[in-house]
Amino acid sequence: MERGMTLQGRVALVTGAGQGVGEGIAHSLHREGASVVIAEFDAESGQRCAEALPGSRFVQTDVRQREQVEHAVADTLAAHGRLDILVNNAYPSGTPPARLENRTDSDFNRALEGGFMAPWWAMQAAFPAMRDNGWGRIINLASLNGVNAHPYTAEYNAAKEALRALSRTAAREWARYGICVNILCPAARTPAYDLFVKHSPENASLVLQQNPMGRMGDPVDDIGGVAVFLASDAAQYLTGNTLFADGGSHLNGVNWEPPVA
To answer: Which of 40, 73, 121, 127 is most buried, taking the most CB atoms under 10 A from its CB?
Structure first.
């Protein structure tokens, strides 16, 4: 395969691809020629995404269940005989904002299970196929919230920063096998963001004010485009990095706080 952005002949598994950033990445990978497997908990949105991408597959997956994550990887390998690109995007619905001293063990356990353990299970399951093929791309979705210690979302921040540490370690250990592991921190207009705008218009305005480009990214063209690059041969010398596809928001930190009791 010639070096470049084409993904012809590649097979990608994207978790949480039923909507938002995951759906945008799935569309972008498919547009560049990859065969895409959509691992999504919500059957309706997952099937809808699969139907919009000819040749793709939908595997209903609750990423909080290890056996279901492993099944999604096994299904991909059974259908295509290979797995080249793994995108860990899924994150189960979180808990409401709360002060750190009021957080419970269950808050952290839920966040770590879906935001850290689930990607690890997928990485561990995908590793043998990537190792044996001598080529692999793993893209783990993290967050500016964790990088900049956003207040009142401690459990989410901890899970995402743990995932960044895991990703860098995997990048170091698995580079010898031709596997590149990178972290993508997006800022995108998604259904969740639209709800945020509806319920917290003042905070939503502050979010845009910290963005030098003055807009949230498009899941397909802005976020998916970066994912395509990371998944391609063009990124063969890039591993262990955190890329911010956020219109420059990371330059300004976090200048708003969610309301808490």
So the answer is: 40
Out of 91, 156, 177, 237, which one is annotated catalytic?
Answer: 156
For 152-173, write each residue's pLDDT tens digit. 999 999 999 999 999 999 999 9
CB atoms within 10 A of CB 57: 19
- Tokens 């498919």 correspond to 30
Query: Three-state DSSP class for 86?
Result: strand
Q: What does the domain layout of the chain look like in residue ranges?
A: 11-96+104-246
CATH superfamily of 11-96+104-246: NAD(P)-binding Rossmann-like Domain (3.40.50.720)
CA distance 229 to 23: 16
Q: In what order do the strands lie in the sheet with 57-60?
A: 57-60, 35-40, 11-15, 85-88, 136-141, 179-186, 242-245
Count the helices and strands in the chain (H runs, E runs). Answer: 10, 7
pTM: 0.92
- Which letter, b or e, does each residue of 141-179 get, where b requires 16 or more Cβ atoms within 10 Å of its Cβ? bbbbbbbbebbbbbbbbbbbbbbbebbbebbeebeeeeb
Residue keyed to tokens 């956003």: 150
Q: Does the annotation mark 156 as catalytic?
A: yes
